[in-house]
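Catalogue entry: protein
Contents: sequence, fold tokens
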Amino acid sequence: MGEILPQPLNWEASATATHPQVSSTLPPEVETCLKNARFLHLATCDALSPHISLMNYTYLPSTPFHPGPVIIMTTNPSSKKTLNLINNPRVSLLVHDWVSHRPPTRNPDPAREGSPPPQATRSSLASLLLNINTSALSSISATINGEAELVPHGSEEENWYKEKHLENNTFGDQAQEERGIFGSTPHAPGMDSAGGSCCFIEGQEVRVVLVGVKEGRIADWKGGVKDWTLLATADSEDPRGREGMVNGVS
């Protein structure tokens, strides 16, 4: 029997991080994805049940309060995800730049609307989206693991993050057309010409959620995976006096 050759890294077991890419900076494809994606998925968990939320977010390479990359989100203080974060700050984020649409199936399902039949031509929407997803411009998803914190309410830090988040998430008419995506209704109070920013960002009771970017995984549309970790640096002094990790989290 011939010698069994080791499998390439992109076939490593997905339950482990056998060969992480270690660097003092984010992988370029992760940073590009964070800068360009519109939404991310935030996974929180209480003692028993996981919970996933679709979130607007803002990515910042560094801030006056954090020496390394962070992700900012806002949340209603009485929401399920907020209650989960209070009890368990560990989170997982998923961000991707894929255009999602189910491809043609072998056996068409008449109950499923919007998906092309198996005999769809190459000019179909499915073929178009497949070509987009396999291009260099749209090819990966990034999972980011870490601990979230609720920024102290009413603090200078919270106000600074809210301002940056508002600058990054005011979409005008497009946001107006998409209202309701976070559980509100087209006629919900608090909606404004900025697409509901007064409700989701500017409201006095809204809390800012901060996640320091520390480690994660890149996956491509073919199933290849690559783990990555940010190095600790000796000069990454946290302005708030915490230990010098790249993401400001010890």
